[in-house]
Amino acid sequence: MSKIKIKVVRLWNAFIDIIRATLPQDTNEKKIFLFSFVFYFLLGVFWLFHVSPDNGFTLLGYDTYEYTIGEFLIPYKALFFKLRHPLMAFWLFPVSMLAYLPEWLFGIASVLPVFTIAANLAMALSTSLVWRICRLMNPSSFYGNLVCTGVYFSFAQIIILSFAVESFPFSSLALLSYISYVWLSRNKADVYSDNLFFAIISGITITNGLKFVLAQYVVERKRDGVLKRVFNSSFLFLFFTSIAVLVAVVRWVFLIRPASPDVSLVSLLLGDSMNYVIHYDFFQWFKVVGYNFFVSPILLCVDAINFEGFDFSEKVLENLSLWAIPLFLFYGSLLLSLWINRKKQLVHVFLCFLVVDVLVHLILGYGLNEGHIFSAHWLFMFPVLLAMLSNLFRSVIVRNIYYLCLFFFSGVLLIHNLSYIVTGIVNVN
């Protein structure tokens, strides 16, 4: 057997192993996955019932439409390249075929429903992985971990992303799978799994590749070791990306340039990526950051599904005043958990992830007004930190009071967010 064939077989085996490790492992994980999927699916059906295919994509993201196959199948579409999501079309190609084939062959309006179900599945798997990570960090309390997972389940943007045609349900799942597989499970990471994770994480959302790179510093404390590991992990991503860029260049030379001479190759490769860099004046920046980073990911303050053009209305200010103390206590608990568990490896990984999001979105201002979407990249850290904080309480009574407070918080939050989401869906048109 040739060396190339051996490497391909090992890559395939690593890919199958990652999929198996991502799927629910035990009865509890399967129950959580099933419950989450049914809930997300029913909400998705409710959404599809009230939305038309024309505005279903534009209201909750355009990624899975623009970055997959689009309106028709062309051979190069499986390697459709744009900088923000360079290999998203490649990784979601099976989902794209399931979405578009019934429409092409039989005229069935299948695109939006299939992508919605794909988001349902991705977020349900993410929820089961959150449960798994909480259990590994806090093995002593089944119900405590269930409550912490319920907190994640009640977040406003987790509920919305469960039926959104966006890239973030898939990128969130990729990050959680990476954490579970490499950092917490008994699977031994090797060059093949590293290549796959780097290609998947970076391919779906390019900036998340920085998270993979920074996370290597947690393992390889020496710079030379990090650079070597990142270099060895990048071959698959570079291989597919090079082909995708080559296809884009050929397409530009022979198809686009003759028909539209004004379209440059750079604009074709970048797409509208740079349009998301947003600048605000000093005081407006603080308001936008405060709302999009700390409030809207958790608490829905407006009963509208389309969040563009958001402003601080009277309803928003009313909700902020009602939830100020609960949110303050919630974030205070997270900061306390970060400090207490600051020496743990998983916390270091979380901080590496968060540094990238702060740099890209907060400092550079990329998509700064879209915290309702990109917050999926860090919301899964919150329930895990809450589960880790419970290890601080030695008294059973104190621990149960802590879980009871979280249960009450998540329950009220879920009811509040659902009422706003349902109202927003009903009034979507």
How would you describe what is shown here?
Keywords: Membrane, Transmembrane, Transmembrane helix. Pfam families: DUF6080. By secondary structure, this protein is an all-alpha fold. The chain folds into two domains: 272 residues, no CATH class; 151 residues, no CATH class. Helix 7 packs antiparallel against helix 8, helix 12 crosses helix 13 and helix 17 packs across helix 20. The longest helix is centred in the last third of the chain and has 31 residues. The model has no long low-confidence stretch (mean pLDDT 82).
Tell me what portion of residues adopts beta-strand conformation.
Answer: under 5%
Q: Look at the helices and sheets and give the structural class.
A: mainly alpha
The separation of the N and C termini measures 59 Å
Give the overall shape: globular
Helix-strand topology string: HHHHHHHHHHHHHHHHHHHHH
Provide the number of structural domains.
2
If helices are DSSP runs of H or I spanning 4 or more residues, what is the number of helices?
Answer: 21
- Tell how many strands the DSSP assignment holds: 0
The low-confidence runs, each spanning 5 or more residues with pLDDT under 50, are none
